[in-house]
Hints:
By secondary structure, the protein is an alpha/beta fold. 24% of the residues lie in helices and 32% in strands.
Amino acid sequence: MKTINCQIVSLTSLTAHVFKVILKPSEKVDFIAGQYLNVVMSEDDKRPFSIASSPNSELIELQIGAFVADSYPMQVIDRIKSSIADNKTLTVEMPLGNAGLQTNSDRPLLLLAGGTGFSYIKSMFEYLAEQHSQRPIMVYWGLRELSAAYELTETAAIIAKLPHANFIPVIETVKDNEVWQGKTGLVHQAVMQDIVSLEPYDIYLAGRFEMVGAIRSDFIEHGALLTHMHADAFAFI
């Protein structure tokens, strides 16, 4: 792990509550797709966020969901805004995490995320596309409502570069006045409807801890092997 100062290249809104942060590190830091970094607020206050960009990228992308003013993530966004205004750098620690993509496997891949956990799997499928991976890959992204979705077209275009990959966004609740022709309901239930048995898959999960815990239990009942399931949340649940 290294402590790196990063220039803030941009801060933009993906939705009303999700921000994209692009950082340029002072030096190239090697990491594995699916790892995370800590934003250093102070020596005793370090906040983890998944790296959304590929390890091959010179820039670091973060996707930060900040739904409440003065919340844990919004304080980070406010720090980034003040750093931009004062032309200061942002200090991060990286790489961190033991749930990165294992490239020595040729098993089919299931990448599943809820909400801004999407950044965890985005790093993976971007890297796999750059590597021209031939593995069968299923990418599922669960969102509570349609307004929470972002970059669906861009994501579909990246995954379309993979010869044996599918992208399946799942919206939990669609309002009567909204047009959505994709899957609805809980994302992991969509997986279990689509895939007869999860036994052959390497599975990577990201989302709220309670969500990941419930998915782990249901997926094991659906044939998944715990030794082939990966999530940073597993260290805490």
